[in-house]
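Slide 14.
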Amino acid sequence: MPILEEPIKETLHLRNYIDGEWVDSKGEPNDVTNPATGKLIARVPVSTEDEFEKAVNAAKGAFYDWRRTPPLARARCFFRLKELLEENFEELSRIQTMEHGKTIDESRGETRRGIEMVEVATGIPSLMMGYNLEDIASGIDEYLIRQPLGVFGIIAPFNFPFMVPLWFAPYAIAAGNCVIIKPSPHVPLSQTKIAELVDESGFPPGVWNVVHGGEAIASCMMENRDIKGICFVGSTPVGKEIYRKCGETGKRVIAQCGAKNFLLVMPDADLEKTIAACMTSFYGNAGQRCLSGANLVIVGEGLNKQEFDAFYEKVVNAFIASASKIKVGYGLDDSVQMGPVQNKQRKERILGFIQKGIDEGAKLRLDGRNVRLVEDLPDTCFLNPTVFTDVTPDMTIAREEIFGPVANIIRTESFDDAVEMIHSNPYGNASCIFTGSGKWAREFQYRVECGNIGINIGIAAPMAFFPFSGMKDSFFGTLHGQGQEAIRFFTESKVVIQRWF
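Slide 15: predicted structure.
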């Protein structure tokens, strides 16, 4: 096994970050283990309701002065934070790999995307600008200004422990609000490290808070009258419940939820580049990504049966050949292409889906249950890439979110049938098409009911200055995270109509 640089040398005992101070929790601690090695790397508290209330009170107390801080001064704190994030880039990336399992290359990509959120937030003097019009009537002017609302809660997922809270926190805070972040208890280390850097960046106490915990803390966020809105990324059932509770309590909500993403391969696609993009889409992050490919739809539009049979087999064989070569192991090894899933329970869930696919008649062409590791590691959380063929849209594996390294290959005669498959699925997070035809590309982006569309792109991930969209059961709310939509979410539009005598 190669010597790997691990930034976490001993078991860390995590604390909450409240009102600019590191505070021990009275809650019982849970173990955080490295999914690749099985080693204990941290103990994270399950915080109490009283501790959460202290964070809310701290954020409320900080809001009065922070909202009166000029936007340019707020932006300077983010410039300092961005500099510190760059200085600690490699350590931050390695922490992600140790707590989550993803490869170091994937972690570096996540770190870069997170830093880009901070970069965009530094533009808050422009992003918060309103608009105006003279003489809406004789001698009367009207203008719109954007004002912050107060305290927001952020409930983070396990799959992108560094980046996802940064979809929201920089925009909320730059706009003059204060936040409380609840990291996933499975991967709490990245947000702890970010808070350490926030502490160095000059943000006033109480503006940026981190409270560890589980469902009880999430419930406190939704029930607390002083929380103005919730930002959530996670499963659809939980997202629906958060959306309902926020509606009952009058809170704003961004709930980015589950996905079942379809990738179409048209007969005119560049096969070599398509397969390369599919490997990253289906097996990047071990399939634990809301933008991951799930169903590969091979479309026979314009081909006769013999031609379509040959095209189908060509795509399937190329896909399986590439998937079978993916190197699986500890993500801190730069040569590894796929790490473990995040914990043993998630692996068991994925294994259940694989068995369900077999039971329902799909053909298991590449069995990822036969774990092959390049290192001497426990196979507790590891799977190899899995490929099913002969999948039909009504099968469980084709309908439900697996969230693991499993690819389902579906055959369909026409483009229209492929679009109908996408529309018959309840999710609408992302869909992609591989084609050399401008006609099919435009038809796809025009007709498909998904928030994020990829054209010859395997992962339709929006940049920080565009919203991370979503439709149907993949999103609940009105405005999305990132960019200008996030600024609108974290501010209220106040209209002023004035006349001077």
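Speaker note: Residues 49-67 form the longest helix (19 residues).
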